[in-house]
Amino acid sequence: MSIRATYLLLAGFVLAITLSPIAPVSSTLWAQDQNLRWTPRKENYPAPRYPKIPKVTTVDELMPYVRHIIKRKGAEHMNVGFDIKGGEKVLFIAESDWDPLVIDAFVRALREANCHVDVILQHPKKTQLDIHEMSEAASMENKVKGTPTSRFYGVLPQWLIDACKQYDWAVNATGVPNAVRFQWPTRELVVSAATMIEDEILDVIDRKVWEVIRQAEEIHIVDPEGTDLKRTWFPEYWQVIEGMHPTVKTVGENFGGYAAARKMHATYGPGQSEKPMIRIHITGVPQGIVLKQSNGEGVAAATSAHQGPSPWIRLTLQKNQITKVDGGGRYGKAWSEYVNKFKDVHYPLYPESGVGWWIEAAIGTHPKAFRPFNVMESRASRSAWSEERRRSGVIHLGFGETLWENKLWGDEHGKPYGHHHLHLYFPTVTVRTRDGREVKIVDKGHLTALDDPEVRAVAAKYGNPDELLTEDWIPAIPGINAPGDYWRDYAQDPWTWVQKEHRKAYGDLLNFKPYP
To answer: Is the overall model pTM greater than 0.85, yes or no?
Structure first.
């Protein structure tokens, strides 16, 4: 019997699957006010660039990459390795819309390592098959309605959490200490250059960025789509991170023991500030921490979030919290309703009530990460849109709440928990250090640490640093780094524009459809 044929026997149950048509969301709250529009600054932004996509047709072509992944140390949230020693008991929770070749390859590699592997094949609900229904807008809408969010934003059901406890590792699980995140739903993500880049290269890049952040007094983020934000790094933030603050006590982002078990993500305690936080997702502002003196001010504007594009949206911030929402279509409407409905909710670790706190500015540091080439065409690629945030120089901003104690309080009191995002593709990030220097850590979307002599020297140990440290993917945005008018051609309906751009850039590759 083939590996594929054993899945449903191992699972012991099946949920009914219903497909839904994929269609773009219409813009109902496009910012028609001409005063909100401007001409993006004419600067020398890097030209669009697309990764080479191999045509993979057999499991054998995947095996060298998958063997590397399962042996790689550390199950970090942004650069996953299974750290398999051999003989472990593994529960592999697969999704029915993943590439079957990928599932076969991982199960084979684990069994080659003498692991006992059981596979559960989950069938998404109807609304989880459409990128718009698993979007961040849908998540906020569900919270406003008081209905459970989809599993993309929640934890596993209790029966599955209990099952995970019987294993050493639970792949694609959320909310359990032995979870391993899964980030390769398609074969193209498995065989990308991002999979095989040496950890030593990524580590020195992270360290170089963190050395600057560790000296920060203020951070300033601008982006040609309209973002202009400033925030002070007060010394008290470091006290919270080190567990030394007199009143704000937190273990950080624990995720049900998941983060603490790996000593990863934003886990707080003695010595935590001295190492890069979070790997390939470097914390540009204090992750999840809001104090009485927190002073984030300005505007955040973008056309994308973790689950795909939306019409241009702008969030205005005062005293580190959202005070106004402009544009955004469905996403903007969801933001307005969410922030207004829960404006009186007061999380215990935050100084005032509200759910619009600026709690994240994560700086991607992986030069080979990219947005999946067929993300606009394939269900299997849908949830992997967020992989773009790992690419060096891309920033995702987060607004809402986090920290483990806030989550526990929210669960106890029936209040929503979580944060939502905006992606910046061409940001410039300037840090003013405590000794008065100004250091650009990102320049028009390019992570300057990639040019550092020490980083290049480490990369030279493994190949040509010019190749290893060059970004494989740079998105195209008309009026910024591609022909066209930003407002007329793109900002009202980025979904349609990106879909057309991908079809033009990748051509016949998109006609090869071996998975959903």
So the answer is: yes
